[in-house]
Specification:
Blueprint (H helix, E strand, L loop, with lengths): L16 E5 L4 H12 L3 E6 L2 H15 L3 E5 L5 H15 L4 E4 L14 H29 L4 E6 L3 H4 L5 H20 L5 E8 L5 H7 L4 H4 L14 H12 L10 E4 L3 H6 L10 H13 L4
Parallel strand pairs: 1-2, 1-4, 2-3, 4-5, 5-6, 6-7
The structure holds hexanoyl-coenzyme A (HXC) and NADP nicotinamide-adenine-dinucleotide phosphate.
Length: 293
């Protein structure tokens, strides 16, 4: 079997309406395409109206599904409230919110202006807060239940990472929000989960994280025990499962999909992988010789 195959049964998301922030590119677009194939209506949003209109048209034609493109800068609460309103006007109600929109770039932290740091925090943490609060309040007020929020974080939400400090700070906050509300708002019939992807090549991320020849210099596949980057369909499969009713008992979880990348960086002796087989005979002999000393 091929890991890029589609996992869920047909119609697994039929009748659901799903909002995907940042749904006009990269992983957001891949998730949107699969949600549509599984029968959901999808509302995609980003700051760029022209871009999301084109993607909506493309995905409608490709899947036969219904996509609504709503421009919305997640940093502004009034725009997010308008997104809730437009989605509900179009489809009656919203069942799932996927907080996928993000901003990021590599930089030594001392080179960042205060505004540069704020910009990332505002998109990632405040944007996720704005969407979660606006949709959550709406669902509570309408007494609607069986709602799902899926947050896209990264593995450095818990390890931290140099050179992307605003993003690491913000994603850590998003993970804390996921786990906190999984408990607090369960009583309103909401589930909260997160996905922590490892490297999945997208133009948005690669242009800002591996500009120029950094792509060749730092081949991210080499950092992954499975020696490859992720395929978008693998992530879309996981997201579709987590927003579907099949995952109804999963709440407050973060699921890592990174081929073992972050653990490789964490394990103290993982670097011994570089030791050639022949050398192990010698090392073993040296260790055994110390017995009783
Ligand atoms: C230092 C920079 C900078 C850089 C921008 N700034 N780029 N500082 N180095 N490379 C500063 C600006 O000078 C400004 O500060 C402030 O940041 C805001 O910049 P603007 O361009 O005005 O912001 P805006 O137009 O809102 O654009 C936001 C953005 C941009 C984040 C800077 O890159 C963007 O639109 N990104 C969206 C998509 C994205 O980032 N995708 C990647 C997600 S990848 P001053 O002080 O001058 O006003 C991801 C993966 C994680 O999250 C894990 C991977 C493994
Ligand atoms: P991407 O294509 O750049 O996606 C980011 C999206 O966010 C874009 O569609 C962008 O659209 C939107 N966005 C940015 N600022 C916004 C704002 N203020 N309001 C509304 N929308 C905004 O990058 P990606 O790689 O697919 O990333 C998707 C998610 O996966 C992100 O949460 C990212 O952190 C996460 N992730 C990615 C990787 C990876 O390897 N690719 C790894 C770990 C985590 P506009 O610019 O049109 O607004």
């Amino acid at each position: 079997m091929d890991y890029t195959q589609k996992m869920m049964q047909a119609d697994a998301l039929k009748g659901k309406t799903i909002v995907v922030t940042g749904g006009g590119s990269g992983l957001g677009k891949a998730m949107t395409a699969y949600f549509l194939e599984l029968g959901a209506n999808v509302v995609i949003s980003s700051r760029n109206q022209e871009k999301i209109d084109l993607v909506a048209k493309e995905l409608c034609e490709q899947t036969g599904g219904s996509v609504l493109a709503v421009p919305c800068d997640v940093r502004h609460y009034d725009q997010v409230e308008a997104l809730v309103k437009k989605a509900c006007e179009a489809y009656g109600s919203v069942d799932v919110l996927v907080n996928n929109a993000a901003g990021n770039f590599i930089s030594p932290t001392e080179r960042l202006s205060s505004n540069a740091f704020d910009t990332i925090i505002d998109i990632v943490l405040k944007g996720t807060k704005n969407c979660t609060l606006a949709f959550g309040k709406h669902w509570i007020a309408q007494k609607e239940t069986q709602k799902v929020v899926l947050n896209i974080v990264t593995t450095y939400a818990w390890t931290g990472s140099a050179y992307v400090v605003p993003s690491a700070t913000a994603k850590a906050g998003v993970l804390a929000m996921t786990r906190s509300l999984a408990v607090e708002w369960a009583k309103y019939g909401m589930r909260f989960n997160a996905i922590a992807p490892g490297p999945f090549p997208t133009k948005g991320a690669w242009d800002r994280l591996l500009p120029g020849n950094l792509k060749e210099q730092f081949d991210l596949a080499k950092k992954v025990p499975l020696k490859r980057v992720g395929a978008h369909q693998e992530l879309a499969n996981l997201a579709a499962y987590l927003v579907s009713d099949f995952s109804a008992y999963i709440n407050g979880e973060v699921i890592t999909i990174d081929g073992g990348e972050w653990l490789k960086g964490a394990g103290q002796f993982n670097l011994l992988e570089d030791i050639p087989e022949e050398l192990w005979d010698m090392l073993e002999a040296m260790i055994r010789a110390k017995k009783g000393n």
